[in-house]
Design goal:
- The complex is a heterodimer of chains A (185) and B (245).
- Chain A is built from nine helices and no strands.
- Chain A is mainly α and 185 residues long.
- Chain A folds into two domains: 96 residues, Orthogonal Bundle (Rna Polymerase Sigma Factor, Chain: A), CATH 1.10.1740; 64 residues, Arc Repressor Mutant, subunit A, CATH 1.10.10.
- The two termini of chain A are 21 Å apart.
- Chain B is α+β, with helices and mostly antiparallel strands and 245 residues long.
- Chain B folds into two domains: 53 residues; 162 residues, no CATH class.
- Chain B is 31% helix and 22% strand.
- In chain B, the strands form two sheets. Chain B has a five-stranded antiparallel sheet.
- In chain B, strand 1 and strand 2 form a beta hairpin.
- In chain B, helix 1 packs across helix 3 and helix 2 crosses helix 3.
- The longest helix of chain B has 14 residues.
- Classes of the chains: A mainly alpha (185), B alpha+beta (245).
- At the A-B interface, helix 1, helix 2, helix 3, helix 4 and helix 6 of A face helix 1, helix 3, helix 4 and helix 5 of B.
Chain lengths: 185, 245
């Protein structure tokens, strides 16, 4: 994990400089993270042009909110990836409810092919989450991943899975509780 | 997997919000709660961090050419909002773990013989006065370490200074803050305790000198401050220019 630790060290001090309004620091963060974040936007939106728009928006958001970054709570990569994911999902939702209501069956998750170029510092965390996810039953894994990557609401999930809303809700809540228990053990 | 206990209703909601399954109405309600309830906000953040590793399996794709240039054009000149936000950040980071404490002290030891920064150009006096901020730093290039942060609020007629050094780190020395504007002698703004924030009320005469480009500097002095009314007696350990917030 030596490389991972180095990555964290490089990115964390950038956040203080960005919060202080230093453009050069934002440029450095962009260089280090934009490929990953563009990948996240593309994964969610499947559209290069929209992903490009969202990517711009993400870095302007980082610029404005860098003062809220708390290194004790999350790594820089986790923080910026979460912003990218949330912004991309906002964009997805803006397309309208039907745009993502039908994608449930089509939610393969990209895996592998990351290690070399991935700058994410928490390969450990990924493996743990992956391990814990794989302990959930297939259906629960599937709905959690779909919700995470497609921003699909309970209502849309219930409709596309042809299951009662309360049932879908309890699958997800049970799944999340198990996930937490597993991650803590 | 062993049976996990159910999540509390609040935490379940936080987890659902982080996951993104709430509908627009519930999502808005959750956002509102995050803004008003720190514990709930912390739960959501914790869940975001728990789920974020899923993003790590997404392959990186180089961003198209030209995106950075467009981002740069979109950056607002005055970015980070209210002064207190900024101060909160610096305070948090001082406590929260950039290893600032040790590093800054090391910087202090190395930098004690640095001459003060001299501002050569005449500083214009702004008529209305505007929000200004400065980060008083030590070291150069990649080894810059912030020591203090300061924000000037013309409405409050005050400079709000926050020390980023650990409390009690000055031992038998004190930190004195100076304003260096134009060709004038440095003006003392008083002593600033390590690890503390301080609101320094400014007389009209000093307010007139609070302008973009003026320098704030910090010197290390014997208790009681510099004996010389026209400048530091001890070494200047850091400096930074005021700029528009």
């Amino acid at each position: 994990m030596a490389a991972a630790a180095t990555t964290t060290d490089i990115l964390t001090p950038l956040m203080a400089r960005i919060a202080a309004g230093e453009r050069e620091a934002l440029r450095q963060l962009y260089q280090a993270t934009s490929a990953k974040l563009f990948g996240v936007c593309l994964r969610i939106l499947s559209d290069r042009e929209e992903s490009e728009d969202v990517l711009q928006d993400v870095y302007v958001t980082i610029w404005r909110r860098a003062d809220r970054f708390d290194g004790a709570r999350a790594s820089v990569m986790t923080w910026v990836s979460t912003i990218a994911r949330n912004r991309a999902i906002d964009r997805l939702r803006a397309r309208g409810p039907m745009a993502y209501a039908e994608q449930v069956d089509d939610m393969e998750i990209a895996d592998g092919q990351d290690s070399a170029e991935t700058l994410l510092s928490a390969a450990d965390d990924r493996n743990r989450l992956h391990g814990c996810m794989s302990e959930l039953d297939d259906r629960t894994q599937k709905v959690i991943r779909t919700a995470f990557f497609e921003g699909v609401t309970y209502e849309a999930l219930a409709k596309s899975m042809d299951a009662p809303l309360g049932t879908v809700k309890s699958w997800i809540r049970r799944g999340l509780a198990k996930l937490k228990g597993c991650l803590q053990s | 997997m062993s049976e996990a206990p159910d999540l509390s209703e609040d935490e379940a909601l936080a987890a659902e919000h982080a996951l993104g399954v709430l509908n627009a109405r519930d999502r808005a309600a959750a956002e509102l709660r995050m803004a008003s309830e720190p514990a709930f906000a912390a739960d959501v953040e914790a869940w975001r961090a728990r789920l974020a590793p899923m993003l790590e399996s997404v392959a990186a794709v180089p961003a198209p050419e030209g995106v950075w240039q467009r981002i740069e054009r979109m950056l607002p000149a005055n970015d980070n909002g209210a002064i207190m936000n900024k101060l909160r950040f610096w305070r948090n980071s001082a406590v929260g773990g950039f290893a600032l404490a040790a590093a800054s002290l090391a910087g202090v030891m190395v930098q004690v013989n640095q001459p003060p920064v001299v501002v050569e150009r005449q500083v214009p006096v702004s008529p209305q006065g505007q929000l200004l901020s400065a980060s008083v730093t030590t070291g150069e290039g990649s080894r810059i370490q912030p020591l203090f942060t300061a924000a000037y609020d013309p409405d409050r007629k005050a400079l709000i200074v926050t020390s980023l050094l650990p409390e009690g780190s000055e031992r038998d020395k004190v930190h004195e803050l100076w304003l260096i504007a134009g060709q004038d002698n440095p003006k003392s703004l008083g002593l600033v305790e390590s690890g503390k924030a301080k609101v320094i009320a400014l007389p009209t005469e000093l307010m007139a000198k609070m302008a973009e480009g003026a320098t704030l500097a910090v010197s290390l002095e014997a208790p009681g401050g510099s004996k010389n009314p026209n400048g530091p007696t001890g070494p200047v350990i850091g400096a930074g220019k005021l700029s528009k917030l």
